[in-house]
Design brief:
This protein is an all-alpha fold. The longest helix is centred in the last third of the chain and has 25 residues. The N and C termini lie far apart (38 Å). The relative contact order is 0.17.
């Protein structure tokens, strides 16, 4: 898979994870979003905190650093702990929002 396709897929997944729970209020869609986020966290935990898509093009957490730099946030590359916290928070927060919506909608 070439780099353009990997980047497009990676950015699409990132947008879905971050904003996918804001688009629909359908139980099935929100359940998919919840499990998708949970599986990403599981994948990272079992793959040395790395996404299989970024391991071809980036060193540890460089993908996150690139996205943060778009917003003017610059964290030293040596600060591995902070970037790891940001990475996991970027998935955990949308996951918890989705969980809250699932509870509010009384989805089983």
């Amino acid at each position: 898979m070439n780099k353009f396709i990997r980047n497009t897929l990676h950015y699409s997944i990132t947008l879905f994870v971050l904003f996918g729970n804001l688009i629909y209020h359908n139980c099935s869609y929100l359940q998919f979003h919840f499990y998708f986020c949970a599986l990403i966290i599981l994948h990272w935990l079992t793959n040395n905190n790395r996404c299989f898509l970024s391991q071809y093009d980036y060193k540890t957490n460089e993908y996150t650093m690139e996205i943060l730099s778009w917003f003017g946030i610059h964290i030293p590359r040596e600060n591995y702990v902070l970037t790891t916290i940001i990475v996991y928070a970027s998935i955990t927060i949308p996951l918890l929002i989705t969980y809250s919506k699932l509870k509010t909608l009384k989805c089983s």
